[in-house]
């Protein structure tokens, strides 16, 4: 990512929160055949380190050569265009506010049983609170058979590069005006801005 010290996110807890609230991730691998990208849901595991778990549908794990090298996982939080019309007269340059994290590490492939446990946790997590929510446990034999078409992974993040670009370079009154403009159409981004601007 562009080197912008003013917008750096350095607190691992902020990165964990970003992943928890935005669990659809992009996985990028420098495979021997060239760059490969795939998209899968992720979950953050409890612990001191940032560790995420996920699964790949076969044959993506082969295309990515999982476990053989470091990969990049991109997590994109709320983002939106910021119009210069929201600034003072004469300020003509638009921008894009966003919260983004790049996570790096070499994934560990999970055993079939560990993978099934992760798939069960992922499903339970996303089904929780839904009317008529389902669980893989309802048909363990059948869902274990289907799970064989996936490969589970655990990624202990060895380094991350994260940005929360949220109008920190603007005067407080301008930032508040941007928040007010975003609120009706992108309340999640407005909330992220409130978090850094203390409002």
TrEMBL record:
Leader peptide range in chain numbering: none
Record Pfam families: FMN_bind_2
Domain of life: Bacteria
Name used for this protein in its record: Transcriptional regulator
């Amino acid at each position: 990512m562009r080197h912008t010290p003013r917008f750096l996110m350095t607190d691992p807890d902020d990165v964990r929160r970003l992943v928890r609230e935005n669990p659809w991730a992009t996985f990028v691998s420098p495979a021997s055949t060239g760059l490969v990208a795939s998209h899968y849901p992720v979950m953050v595991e409890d612990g001191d380190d940032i560790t995420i778990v996920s699964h790949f549908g076969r044959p993506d794990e082969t295309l990515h050569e999982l476990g053989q090298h470091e990969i990049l996982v991109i997590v994109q939080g709320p983002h939106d265009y910021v119009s210069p019309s929201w600034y003072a007269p004469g300020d003509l340059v638009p921008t894009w506010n966003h919260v983004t994290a790049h996570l790096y590490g070499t994934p560990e492939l999970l055993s079939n049983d560990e993978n099934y446990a992760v798939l069960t946790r992922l499903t339970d997590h996303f089904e929780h609170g839904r009317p008529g929510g389902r669980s893989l446990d309802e048909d363990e034999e059948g869902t274990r058979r289907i799970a064989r078409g996936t490969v589970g992974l655990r990624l202990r993040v060895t380094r991350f590069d994260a940005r929360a670009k949220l109008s920190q370079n603007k005067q407080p009154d301008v930032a508040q005006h941007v928040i007010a403009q975003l609120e009706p159409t992108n309340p999640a981004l407005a909330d992220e801005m409130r978090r850094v601007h203390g409002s």
